# Entry
Amino acid sequence: MQKRIDYLDTAKGIAIIAVVMSHAISNSGNIALLDHPVLLNWLSFFNVSTFFFINGFLYNESCINSPIKSISKKVKAYYFPFLKFNLFFFLFQNLFVQLHILDESYRINGLKNFIIELFKLLFGKMQPLTGPMWFLRSLILLSIMYILTDYFSSRIFQGKYRYLINGIVAIILWKLSKYSKTPTTFNLPSACEGFFLFYLGVLYKKFNVNDFIKKYLYPTGLLSFTISVIIGNTIMVGIYGHLNDPLDIISMIVSVIFVISISQISFISNIKSLKYIGKCSLEIMALHFFAFKPVSLILIKVYNLDISYLGNLPVVMITGLSVIWPILYSISGIILPAAYCAITASLIARVKRH
# Structure
């Protein structure tokens, strides 16, 4: 088993907090109408991008020795968690509708529709409360594409131009993600974008870039933060971030470097709770929409809103709210899934002891 790298857990902790915060302030589908558009824009530079980058860093180059087996392992690693959480929310979907946690439009009527929706779920359809798990769908496609690309590039010219060929493919896929006729199945455009960030993560590890980063942690962290904030006030990317032009690419690379840098600064890297949040990032990604609901219920009571507002996704959609609500959403979206993670780990450990 590969040994965990502490600073990567910290980096994942920072990134998943950014994901949750992004959704906590997303009370409008139009970024220009948000109460905190610049903050959302800045978070979008590194929230999901960091995960694509880290997955590239953790890529095992020996995958090319048995590509089919490696692809099978990657698909299982990402598909089974996707299936587990989506299946849970699917089975209780009508109950959630009845409790106003979901809008009435999500009700599943009749056995025929139940079977059809179940079939769609098995082939990757996300449930309304698991929207952030689009990342796993992209990661499945991305992993398949990268392993196959790496397999063939390592055999062309005896692998002499392996990383150059992989880079060319990364650029082609980035361009393909912008093509209007590219299929959106399994978030293919996002997978094509993620491929580029994944590839950068591979290079970061291969050429020991982190040795330089560690040598100049504070200036690297400060400079990358400054540049990303300046760009964040200049261009609008959106909640997930998209590599639309060179400036977008620069913003995401610089912002990911910012996260990787500060995750190695001692007073941050020593925060155990941040590491734990990073270790629970998958559960937080899957459950934070659901974990937002208690805060939504409190907000509805405070502002005397109709209970139907509870079905708003991801948060209650009214403008002009106090900044306290995004903070409460963020806290709930992180702590409740992390608590679930701790409880399930404890139960599994207890079962193993017996």
